[in-house]
UniProtKB/TrEMBL annotation:
Keyword field contains Cell inner membrane: no
Domain 4Fe-4S ferredoxin-type: 34-111
Protein name: (Fe-S)-binding protein
InterPro entries, sorted: 4Fe4S_Fe-S-bd, Cys_rich_dom
Length: 453
C-alpha cells in the first residue's frame, strides 16, 4: 500500500507490546492505528471533546476505539482492497469522524484519529476519485479569490429554490446558511513598511492571516494587528512572495488536507514555507488566529514530507493567546488591559483544536486580566460544524445534535452574555443556530486596550 502521509514517527509504536495487535497491511500507518489499547476511555461521557459522533449516538462503533477495530479488520484482511474499498460500516464510521483531535489529547495513548482519517481519505480519493462537492470544499481558498464569490453566496442564501437545487445536485444542506465573505477582505498595507526590521527580534512578530479570517472576518485580523502594535511589537504581515501568485493570499492548505488531497496541501504548504522562511531564519515568532490553521502548521505539516523547513516553522508558530501569555511570562509584554464597563458577563466557547493543544488555558489567563470581567468557559464538545461537515446535507442533523448537547443550551440560558469564540467554523455554527455572532479573542482584547492605545 502506498501511503500519502509520513508515518515514520510511529516506526517503533507498539513494538514489544503484546496488546498492540499491529495489522499486517499498512506499515507504519498500521502502527498508528494500533496505538489504541482498547481501554474504552473514549466511550465515557462528561467533560472533554471526544468523540462528538459517539456522544450523540451512543454507538461504540463511532468512538475512536470502535473505528480502530474496523480499521484493524480491514488492514488485516487477506487483500488490502478491504481497506481501499471499505465496507459500509467502516466508510460510515470514518465519515462521521469530525477530525476534532479530541482523541489525540484525551486518549491515554494519544490515538490521532484526525490524522488517520486524512490518510484514509487520501486513499479513497486516489482509489475512487473525488466528488465535485469535495473538490469545491478543497479549492475554497482559490474560489474565494473570484470577484463573483460573494454575490453568488448571497444569492444562494437568499434563494430557497437555489439552495434546494444545490442540495439535490451537490449535497450542500439547503437549510444551512453558507458563510459570506466580508465586503472588504483584510488589507495588507504597504509592503515597504513591512519589510524593514525595527528594534530587537524578540520585539518583532509575524501575523499570519489565514484564508478564513482574510475573507470572512478581517476585523479579527485588524484587531490582532492593533493589539500586537499596542503591546510594543513591530508587526510583519505574512504575504506571498512576488514571484509566487502575489495577488492570492497565503493559505495553510487545511482545506486540501482535510478533503483527501495531501499533494495539493503540500503545494500550498511549500508556498507558505517559502514566504515565511526569511522570518523563521531571522528568529521571529509566527502568530495566527485560526486554531485549525495554526495546528496545521505545527502538526500536519510534519506529515507532508516537507523536510527541515516544516520542523523549523512548527517551532516558531503560536496562536495569538499563546504568544501574549508567553511574552508576559518573559517580561516583554507589559501592557495592562482595562475594564469593559459595558460587558457584565462573557461566555467562552473553545475550538476543538484550541483544546487539543491546551491553548484554552492561555485564553482564560488573558480574560482573567481584564478587570471585573465575569466569564465562564462553556463545557462543550465539538460545535458540530467542523469545517464543511456541518453544511453537508447528510450531516446537518448530526451537527445540530452536537451543538445541542451543551453549546446551544448554554447560549440560551444566558442570552445577554457576550460570546468569544476563535474558530471560524464555531462562529458559523453559532450564527446558524440563531445566536449573535461571537467575537474573536483579538477583538475582545482590543476593546480592553487603554484609551490612549
Amino acid at each position: 500500500m502506498k501511503l500519502f502521509l509520513d508515518w515514520s514517527s510511529y516506526e517503533n509504536a507498539g513494538m514489544g507490546d503484546a496488546y498492540a495487535d499491529i495489522p499486517k497491511h499498512g506499515a507504519d500507518f498500521a502502527k498508528a492505528v494500533a496505538v489504541c489499547i482498547g481501554s474504552r476511555q473514549c466511550e465515557q461521557s462528561g467533560k472533554g471533546v471526544m468523540c462528538p459522533s459517539y456522544r450523540i449516538s451512543g454507538n461504540p462503533v463511532l468512538s475512536p476505539g470502535g473505528r480502530v477495530k474496523l480499521l484493524k479488520s480491514a488492514l488485516n484482511a487477506g487483500d488490502e482492497q478491504a481497506f481501499l474499498n471499505p465496507d459500509p460500516e467502516l466508510a460510515e464510521a470514518m465519515d462521521l469522524c469530525l477530525s476534532c483531535k479530541g482523541c489525540k489529547r484525551e486518549c491515554e495513548n494519544e490515538v490521532d484519529m484526525a490524522l488517520i482519517k486524512a490518510e484514509f481519505l487520501a486513499q479513497q480519493v486516489a482509489q475512487h476519485g473525488m466528488s465535485l462537492r469535495r473538490r469545491l470544499w478543497s479549492e475554497l481558498p482559490k474560489i474565494l479569490c473570484w470577484p463573483v464569490a460573494r454575490p453568488l453566496l448571497l444569492w444562494r442564501n437568499g434563494s430557497a429554490w437555489l439552495a434546494r437545487a444545490l442540495e439535490v445536485a451537490l449535497g450542500i444542506g439547503a437549510k444551512v446558511r453558507l458563510p459570506v465573505p466580508a465586503r472588504q477582505p483584510f488589507q495588507y498595507g504597504s509592503p515597504a513598511k513591512d519589510t524593514v526590521s525595527v528594534g530587537p527580534v524578540d520585539k518583532q512578530v509575524v501575523l499570519f492571516v489565514d484564508t478564513f479570517n482574510h475573507y470572512f472576518n478581517p476585523a479579527a485580523a485588524e484587531a490582532a494587528q492593533k493589539l500586537l502594535k499596542a503591546g510594543g511589537y513591530q508587526v510583519h504581515i505574512a504575504r506571498p512572495r512576488p514571484d509566487d501568485e502575489p495577488s492570492r493570499p497565503l493559505c495553510c492548505g487545511r482545506t486540501y488536507f482535510s478533503n483527501g488531497r495531501p499533494d495539493r496541501a503540500a503545494r500550498e504548504a511549500r508556498r507558505l514555507l517559502k514566504a515565511l522562511e526569511p522570518h523563521v531564519r531571522a528568529g521571529r515568532s509566527i502568530v495566527g488566529l485560526e486554531p485549525s490553521c495554526i495546528l496545521n502548521l505545527r502538526d500536519e505539516y510534519l506529515k507532508l514530507g516537507l523536510g527541515e523547513a516544516a520542523q523549523k516553522l512548527a517551532e516558531k508558530v503560536l496562536l495569538l493567546e499563546e504568544f501574549i501569555v508567553r511574552e508576559q511570562s518573559a517580561g516583554r509584554w507589559t501592557l495592562h488591559f482595562q475594564a469593559l464597563p459595558d460587558v457584565s458577563r462573557l461566555l467562552l466557547h473553545g475550538h476543538c483544536h484550541q483544546k487539543a493543544v491546551g491553548a484554552i488555558k492561555s485564553v482564560r489567563k488573558l480574560l482573567k486580566q481584564v478587570p471585573g470581567l465575569d466569564f465562564e468557559l462553556i463545557e462543550a464538545s465539538c460545535c458540530g460544524m467542523a469545517g464543511n461537515f456541518g453544511v453537508e446535507a447528510e450531516h446537518v442533523e448530526h451537527a445540530r445534535a452536537m451543538a445541542e448537547l451543551a453549546l446551544f443550551p448554554a447560549l440560551r440560558a444566558e442570552p445577554a452574555a457576550l460570546l468569544v469564540s476563535n474558530g471560524f467554523s464555531c462562529q458559523q455554527q453559532i450564527s446558524n443556530g440563531g445566536f449573535a455572532r461571537p467575537l474573536h479573542l483579538s477583538q475582545l482584547l482590543c476593546m480592553a486596550l487603554p484609551a490612549s492605545e
